[in-house]
Amino acid sequence: MPLDIVIGTQWGDEGKGRIVDLLAAQADLVARYNGGDNAGHTVNVGGHTFRLHLIPSGIIHPHTIGILGNGMVINPATLVQEIENLKAAGVSITPERLRISFAAHLITPAHRALDQAQEQARGSGQIGTTGRGIGPAYTDKAARHGLRMEDLLDLDTFREKLEHHVATINTWLMRIYEADPLDVQAVVREYTHYATQLQPYIADVGMELHQALRLGKQVLAEGAQGTLLDLDLGTYPYVTSSTPTAAGALLGLGLGIVPVRAVIGVTKAFQTRVGAGPFPTEVFGKTAERLRGTGKNPWDEFGTTTGRPRRVGWLDGVLLRYAVRVNGVTELMITKMDILSGLPTLRLCIAYRYNGHTLQDLPLGPAHLEPFEPVYEELPGWMEDVTTVRRWDDLPAAARAYVRRIEELCGVPVRRVSVGPERSQVVEVTP
Ligand code: GDP
Ligand code: IMO
Ligand code: MG
């Protein structure tokens, strides 16, 4: 019963969508297990760009079934729009192909308004959330008064619950944040409409995944966000409110402790972050502009979901080794090797300096990174354009040496590197 899990090893946007699309060629079911429409996963196939926020990236292949797991928080407005966009692009979306957990939580306009009001109130301590209502929806879940997908199945009760939910948050918005209240009946009308559209997709996906695995089918779990944004294991409090790490897949899909064949850690060849929080290897000035790009190319470092410029820096090997450990990563995939072409020297953080000591690992995890200074190793870069390379031996020697050094630092093999955003722009690493 092969279950593979794809996770981001950094602060998100590592290129998980494109690798899930690649691996989905061999998968029967592809399942998202955490987060919501804070995620933006890009897949490029044959010149067509798909930007997915909720539906698993594997859905582009016609043979797969897409699953939205119980660990997710779902904004039905985004989901209905995404279904329409995919259909318009020729991707078949039917209740046979798309299955949504009855236990996934709903995001409402009240959650979004509260997220934005809370961010404003944080002032200089802002997290830099995507404003999509993620934190408030997970807060409601933990407080045991959230709305779940299954609530959409009984419209009379749902309307009552929704009215109460919006009215309660309206009180907070007005009394605590001095923000405008929402029109309760407008939200109820809008959500009644979504309910009728989404009802046919709601299912016990945990049971379906369990049965699929028993039949020997291949399941690919797609993480959103990244290890360093994990609520427990990330750079708290500058994190998201879910569990993007690999363990989140078992809980967020309702699978229990089942064998996992591979945990595939996706790593960008350098480091990026969108939103606030510590970032030891961050760079500024010319190098930053070079790594980020101008925004002209679709893959330049500007958020898929919010359009914000991403902060950029050199690859942090200490944090990568941490991610390998806390996820149980069995193999790495390095994306965006093409972006490093033309840089004469690369820097790779191999340790930190703290209080006059050199540390290979963080003493207390990544939450308090501010006082740690990166210790860099310099490696020669390469000048060649690598975007047309498809064989490992055809990559410049310096590019191969960079990959080998990352393997050495992390103790796990790098199985693939990507050299461009298209599905075909991938090089299998040979031993
Ligand atoms: P995700 O959130 O991890 O799925 O990543 P995003 O889709 O948010 O961001 C990754 C961006 O980089 C997307 O625009 C991808 O099309 C692009 N991308 C992925 N791999 C490569 C690569 O190897 N080279 C280049 N140039 N772009 C890539
Ligand atoms: P994908 O799946 C990058 C960041 C936000 C913010 C923090 C909390 O595309 O990799 P939230 O709205 O979740 O409460 O914001 O998390 N963040 C992401 N950064 N990629 C993502 O998703 C992200 N999802 C959330 O920028 O710093
Ligand atoms: Mg993204």
Could you walk me through the main structural features you see in this protein, from its secondary elements to its overall organization?
There is one protein chain. With 431 residues, this protein is an alpha/beta fold. 30% of the residues lie in helices and 20% in strands. The chain has eleven helices and 20 strands. It has helices spanning 16-23, 76-88, 109-122, 134-142, 155-175, 184-198, 205-214, 247-252, 285-292, 317-327, 397-410, and strands at 3-8, 29-32, 41-45, 48-52, 65-68, 73-74, 98-101, 105-106, 202-203, 219-222, 262-268, 271-273, 311-313, 315-316, 331-335, 345-354, 357-359, 373-380, 414-418, 426-428. The strands form five sheets. It has a ten-stranded mixed β-sheet, with helices on both faces. Strands 14, 16, 17 and 18 form a four-stranded mixed β-sheet that branches. Strands 3-4 form a two-stranded antiparallel ribbon. α3 packs across α4, α3 packs parallel to α5 and α5 (155-175) packs antiparallel against α6. It starts with a strand and ends with a strand. Bound molecules: guanosine-5'-diphosphate (GDP), 6-O-phosphoryl inosine monophosphate (IMO) and magnesium ion. The site of 6-O-phosphoryl inosine monophosphate has 24 residues, from α4.
Outline of the structure:
The protein is α/β, with parallel strands linked by helices and 431 residues long. It has helices at 16-23, 76-88, 109-122, 134-142, 155-175, 184-198, 205-214, 247-252, 285-292, 317-327, 397-410; strands at 3-8, 29-32, 41-45, 48-52, 65-68, 73-74, 98-101, 105-106, 202-203, 219-222, 262-268, 271-273, 311-313, 315-316, 331-335, 345-354, 357-359, 373-380, 414-418, 426-428.
